[in-house]
Structures are given as structure tokens and as C-alpha cells.
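At this stage, I put together one protein's amino acid sequence and its C-alpha cells, which the following lines show:
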Amino acid sequence: KGSSYPDDLTPPPVNFARNSILFSENPSTKLRNNPVLELWKVSRTYLPSVLTGAYPWRDVDQMDDQPLAALYNMVFVRLPVVLTGLVYLKSLLLDGNDLVMDFGVMGDGPQVMNPIIVTAVLVAILL
């Protein structure tokens, strides 16, 4: 009855080994308590590869190591490019409007872009 409650608690084991939670480059808690990684894995599983960039020939483990970068790429690069491509196709096929660009260097003024070139640039960005 003479001992107090905090004295009855055993101190946690301290592990200074290289593979411990404190010093490991890949601790076990990184995989269990990472909501960004979980969101990335759900996105990678259920969304098409054109949106996530998780193609079979790409290194998906590298994306799993940096899930925030993969989500950023998906939201701020891939999604706008896909939406731009859809708007371009709608404008080209349904409205009959071409993409007109003025490069300003040649002095010829605005020029109609070939749809094959536009599609090739969009595909190159997404690959």
C-alpha cells in the first residue's frame, strides 16, 4: 500500500538499434498510421490509371513511398489535363471548333493546330 500508482508502471523498452521505430528509415508505424497513404492506395485501386498514373510499367512502389506527391500529381496535373482533353474533344467533335494558337514568333498570326498534335501533347503529358 506504500507504493503509488506511477511507480507500479514499467517503463517502455528503449531500443536504439538501427531497425527500431525511432531510427529506421522505413518504420512499421509508417504503414499503419498513414491516412495519406491509405487515400492514395484507394485512389490507385479504384480510379483509372490515366488519372492516377499508376500504370503497370511504372514503379508503383515509388508512388507508395511518396503518396502526397502522387495525390498532388493526380489532382493538379492529371485531372486538369484529362478535363482539358475532354473539353477539346467536345469542342472539336460536337461544335466543330478547332484549337487556334498564336505563337507570336513566326509573325503569321493565329494558326489552327492539327488535332493529332494536340492529342499527342495531351497523351505525352499523361504518360
In short: The radius of gyration is 26 Å. Strands lie at 100-101, 111-112.
